[in-house]
Amino acid sequence: METTGPAPIPFNKPFIAGRELYHISQAVLSGHLAGNGIFTRKCQEFLETTYGCGKALMTSSCTGALEMAAILCDLEPGDEVILPSYTFVSTANAFHLRGAKLVFADITPDTLNLDPTGVEERLGPATKAVCVVHYAGVACEMDAFTALCAKRGLRLVEDAAHAIGATYKGKALGSFGALSAFSFHETKNFISGEGGALAVNDPALVERAEIIWEKGTNRSQFFRGITDKYTWVDIGSSFLPSELVTAFLYAQFEQADEITRRRLACWKHYQTGLAPLEKAGDLRLPVIPAYSGHNAHMFYLLLENGDARDALMAFLRQRNIMAVFHYIPLHSSPMGLAMGYRAGMFPVTESCSARILRLPMFYDLKTEEQDRVVGAIREFFGKA
Ligand SMILES: *Cc1c(COP(=O)(O)O)cnc(C)c1O
Predict the structure, then answer these.
(1) How far, in Å, is the centroid of ligand 1 from the Cα of 169?
(2) Which of 97, 159, 191, 325 to mutate to test the pocket of ligand 1 (most atoms within 8 A of CB)?
(3) Residue 174 half-sphere exposure toward CB, CA atoms < 13 A
(4) Whose CA is nearest to atom 5 of ligand 1?
(5) Pairing of the two strands 167-168 and 171-172
(6) Considering 197, 228, 254, which residue would you say is the last residue of a domain?
(7) Residues 6 or more apart from 206 whose CB is under 8 A from it?
């Protein structure tokens, strides 16, 4: 007879802060359900005042925010954008859609963030922009990237999908790049199902950003009374979310500190529990450089090799613990290969992608559940 195993521990569980439905009811009663209403503005103000973003524009996804950023980079066919291969597809798609050439670069083995040295080696006359990804909410080396982009007149874009509330030398991530994109997908720290925001930190880009955001029209200027007609003036799309989405999100923003505090506590509990295994050389835990104030977006392990990772993942699944891995390197994906990249070109990316395992991490994760995860990993290594 089959016995029921221990209760499943999911990889992610969307957190509900409490006032989501109340805010949605306020939006419904207000009669304004389309975008750019009260809750959109409340969310934008929150991002601007809390994280020092220049102008924030809410979007339907981080993917959309990255697409807006790519349009604002004014790329022409043949222009090059340098970005990591170890990232989510949207980072690359946004620039590819503009006809730019994607120039992948490798990551550093400590933080799995873009390596400034590799970026410098790939700079050329066609380079127009650099897009950094703050992996797991741990900051990239922003002094190096800011200096490099300033010196060469390049646009710096931050894919800050993981990084809301995280800092570099005390300054919020998302406030460094000319353009930065946040995600509120249900797997991120603050959520609205799908959702995102673009931070426009270069004041010279704000006016055009608003036009692109509103389908290529000067609607925002019209409503501010700057122009007396509302018409098609540039390319654009419908990047803005419904008020129902921003009403939900605002409830999460109200609990932002509490969400980050709780996630950091979970993160530290894993770190403490797994430190002896790291000491014994069984695995490697995330490295947090002194310049990085992270937001506990993710807790991952690096195993000795791909076989060990697959074996541990299967071992945890047998115990109803959902651990996952991600980022098939973009350069070795079918799209990357079609662009002329080959497997073997970015050894750190390929090694980390094969060896990484992400542990369950969400607001409601219980200490007992974490102890079960840690216990199972210890058992795997024969240290139970
Ligand atoms: C989640 C994620 C995105 C895309 O976010 P969406 O809001 O789902 O569009 C982009 N880049 C990175 C690094 C991500 O993790």
Answers:
(1) 24
(2) 159
(3) 31
(4) 62
(5) antiparallel
(6) 254
(7) 54, 55, 200
**Who lines ligand 1 at CB under 6 A?**
61-63, 87-88, 90-91, 133, 159, 161-162, 183, 185, 196
199, 224, 254 — which closes off a domain?
A: 254
User: Which residue is it, tokens 């369950």?
Assistant: 360
Tally the C-alpha atoms within 13 A of residue 261's C-alpha that lie toward its C-beta. 4
Rounded CA-CA distance 204/255 in Å is 32
Over residues 69-90, the pLDDT tens digits come to 999 999 998 999 999 999 999 9
Q: Are residues 250 and 260 in the same domain?
A: no
Q: What spacing in Å lies between the alpha carbon of 187 and ligand 1's midpoint?
A: 9
The predicted structure's pLDDT at residue 226: 85
CA atoms within 13 A on the CB side of 225: 0
Looking at the chain, the whole-number percentage of residues with pLDDT higher than 90 is: 94
- Domain assignment present for residue 104? The answer is yes
213 lies in the same domain as 261:
no
Distance 88 CA to ligand 1 centre (A): 6
